[in-house]
Amino acid sequence: MENTDKIMIPDEIIMNQIYFIRGHKVMLDSDLATLYEVETKQLKRQVKRNIDRFPEDFMFELTSEEYHFSRSQNGALKQGSNIKYSPMVFTEQGVAMLSSVLNSKRAIKVNIQIIRIFTRIRNILADNTDIRLEIEKIKNKLDNQDKNMEIVFRYLDELLEKQERPNPPRKQIGFKTDGLNQS
């Protein structure tokens, strides 16, 4: 009997099977079936028997255009293999739900690994977003500093221009006292 306590699937294999379709990170039914060591039709059958557990944000079927586009872009779907039904794709939540409809220890263990990878990807994306926000803050500060420096240089230029031009004689303002002391 196979030891399923420790399933060793390299994370890179799973990461390479996560695609971005319709704005979601998803995995294909055939890839999941391979990881769970079940036939794709068995996986689909279990999902259809429990379809209430798989709302649109957990699982959806690819259109033929999406299927062909995915195949040409990713090389993910085998060229020349005939598909009778549109492939199902599962979001992170859908993958988590699969462990409840596939009653095997392997499915549960593989799902745990997949969910950890989804979480790691989400954290990486969040870290990148944080870094981008920090870079934007720095850029804004530098832009403001550039503007401030421009103002300072403009002011210095004005001062230099004033210094180079002699000041016209000033008119005196006030009362003229012809040297007499008026009391």
Automatic annotation (TrEMBL):
The record places domain KilA-N DNA-binding at 16-101
Q: InterPro entries this protein is in? A: KilA-N_DNA-bd_domain
KW Coiled coil (keyword) present: yes
Q: Does the keyword Coiled coil apply?
A: yes
Q: Tell me the domain of life.
A: Bacteria
- One Pfam match: ORF6N
Q: Which UniProt keywords apply?
A: Coiled coil
- Coiled coil location: 121-148
Q: Know the name of this protein?
A: ORF6N domain-containing protein
- The organism is Pedobacter psychroterrae
